[in-house]
Amino acid sequence: MRQITYREALREGLKEEMRRDSNVFLLGEDIAEFGGSYKVTQGLLEEFGHARIRNTPISEAAIIGAALGASLAGMRPVAELMYIDFSGVAMDQIVNQVAKVRYIFGGKAKASLVIRTQGGAGRSSAAQHAQSLESWFTHVPGLKVVMPSTPKDAKGLIKSSIRDDDPVFFIEHKLLYNEIGPVPEEEYLIPIGKADIKRPGKDVTIVATSRMVLRSLRAAELLTEEGIEAEVIDPRTLVPLDEETIFNSVKKTGKLVIVHEACKRSGYGAEIAALVCEKAFYDLDAPIKRVAAFNTPVPFAPKLENYVIPDEKAIINGVKELFR
Amino acid sequence: MAKVITVPRLGLTMETATVTTWMKQEGDIVNKGEVICIIETDKASFDVEAPQSGVLVKVMAEEGSVLPVGEVLAVIAQTGESFDLEKLIQQAKADMETPAAVKPAEARAVVRGPILPKEKRELKVSPLARRIAEEKGIMLEDIIGTGPGGSITKEDVLRVWEQKGSIPTQPLIVSKKIPLKGIRKLIADRMSLSWHTAPRVTQVMEVDMSEAIRFREECWSDWEAKGVRVSINDILIKAVSLALMENLEMNSSLKENEIEVYGNVNMGIAVSAERGLIVPVLRNAHQKTLLEIARESAILVQKVREGKIGPDELSFGTFTITNIGTFGIDLFTPIINPPESAILGVGKLEKKVKVVDDDKIAIRSVMNLCLVFDHRVVDGAPAARFLGRVKEILERPVQLKELN
Hints:
The structure holds 2 protein chains of 2 kinds. Chain A folds into 2 domains: 3-182, Thiamin diphosphate (ThDP)-binding fold, Pyr/PP domains (Rossmann fold), CATH 3.40.50; 196-321, 3-Layer(aba) Sandwich (Rossmann fold), CATH 3.40.50. Chain A is built from 12 helices and 14 strands. Chain A is an alpha/beta fold. In chain A, helix 3 (60-72) packs parallel to helix 4 (91-98), helix 8 (211-223) packs across helix 12 and helix 9 packs across helix 10. In chain A, the strands form 3 sheets. Chain A has a 7-stranded mixed beta sheet, sandwiched between helices. Chain A has a 5-stranded mixed beta sheet with strand order 9-11-10-13-14, with helices on both faces. In chain A, strands 1-8 form a two-stranded antiparallel ribbon. The longest helix of chain A has 15 residues, at 6-20. Chain A has helices spanning 6-20, 44-48, 60-72, 91-98, 101-104, 134-138, 151-163, 211-223, 243-253, 268-279, 302-308, 312-321, and strands spanning 3-5, 24-28, 53-55, 76-81, 114-119, 144-146, 168-173, 180-182, 196-199, 204-208, 230-234, 237-239, 256-263, 289-293. Chain B is of the alpha+beta class. Chain B folds into 3 domains: 3-104, CATH 2.40.50.100; 121-177, E3-binding domain (Dihydrolipoamide Transferase, Irregular), CATH 4.10.320.10; 182-402, Chloramphenicol acetyltransferase-like domain (Chloramphenicol Acetyltransferase), CATH 3.30.559.10. The longest helix of chain B is centred in the middle third of the chain and has 16 residues, at 182-197. Chains A and B meet through loops of A and helix 2 of B.
């Protein structure tokens, strides 16, 4: 199968959906001529023109508000927030408007929009440009939250998100854009709400999200030297969450390690841990372990940044704690 | 200072206590350590002593009343002292730490406390390991844990399981814990009530059912034409209802100081349902024809099986028939369904070699009728007469036909 980058896969997904449905259009800061901060939308202006690739002022609230308005009028906008860190500026639009309209209008209005954004550390972009804020959004009923880790998942999920009638908060990772992976040339979709077992194993379940999937897979390879076969599960979508796949894996392994790049306190790992305690408690043969970032702002200094974000070693140590 | 005396907790399982005797009356002067009243739990009776000297200013519970643990028994105050009773009571309930001094009343009963293991090691066990140990009947106390923090893991349990030759080490294997609630609780309470209150006598009489069976076969096509299938049970209901109307003392309830004798027969039919034993009541069975009984009992039984029976259809029974002969039981002693005075158990219907009227040997279909009755209400002779009358009707079923 051909290998392309996460960035190219996303761009293909956007392009295909725009060709398929003339109601799909993009809006965001510097997404047209400049091609977006991380160049996902590069080249789209030539094919689709300014009417469908719209640059916006630097106002996140306006971007999301305009996208919501367009969706209520029947369009399927894909709004880009340059950094997830900036979502705070648009929080009222996202939480009180986008997530709520379908409910408060009794289902008569649909907010069929996608909010694309990216988060994560690793480029020394410091405390205001490197956060992992997914659990802000998983906590808000009415939003679907998608977090792909591979080029193939990114393309299949952006297409499903655009076609979804509910608002989807689509979180990319700045260090994944250059990651290369196999992506089919023929059209495919990846359903929202279906986890993927990235690596089968029998001794311990690792549930990891976004970039931590890659690190967990490398950690799993290293763990084989210790005789531990880890199963790595990527939920791919946090809301809705494919609980079944996680429970089935825990039933098999009896041990659960959750890895995410967001800081540990009130991170999404707490939600997964609680669900497993509530619904699969008697399959647990060891305490649940969370491997996550320290509860600190992401430091600017690269050494410190690497120190607070979980790496392969932290994951391996986390797993080994469950084996005494 | 005024002090409230509450019902103390005298054992882990203790929920309530009955006030049996007040040794002091309201207004009496009491000295610290003096017994002011005697309370009784399900296990023993206890003296409640005055925690301080003073005047017993308030007695809050009558003799015979049942109070939950922590409920106020009395208040002791000093002469002339004024106090806010409500506040005191609230304070006492909030502060269960200071119960009244209590010692077991000597020679009245032996107090049995819960049996606690001599040494209780705190075990760290993974939920999975605990589950497997329970399933396999392995004592966790015997296992050394090798998991995180010395916890017992699945592997540890399985290792011990194999070492012990895959045999349970636990003396008892609890495969399931069923909460005693709902219908199970109701059955438990009512059966205990019956067992502990009614001095019962069982009388067994063998009945020759050959004629009843023949009668049923003869009428079968007529009945079928009317769309009704009459069972042996329906015939029994009819026969028993007739016999009850002639022996009304069997159709009664003991209420406080009198026996209520009923003029109508509401026949309880014991049905084994998924939820447990349920007894729907066929009202006014004595006025109904065999066909009406057959129709109604079929509907009642079906409703029970489908869980659609209403409370109205489970109330006001005056007598109960329970048939487990169909399970091969020869005879048994059912428990009276309170507040009824008697119950009829029906045993297995089978062919037996019998000596008949003219000293010949014949093969007859017989079964046992087991009458259990409350001897407080009915004596042996009238009960025997009643049972004999049931037998007579069943052995000469032509009577049923006339009344069909």
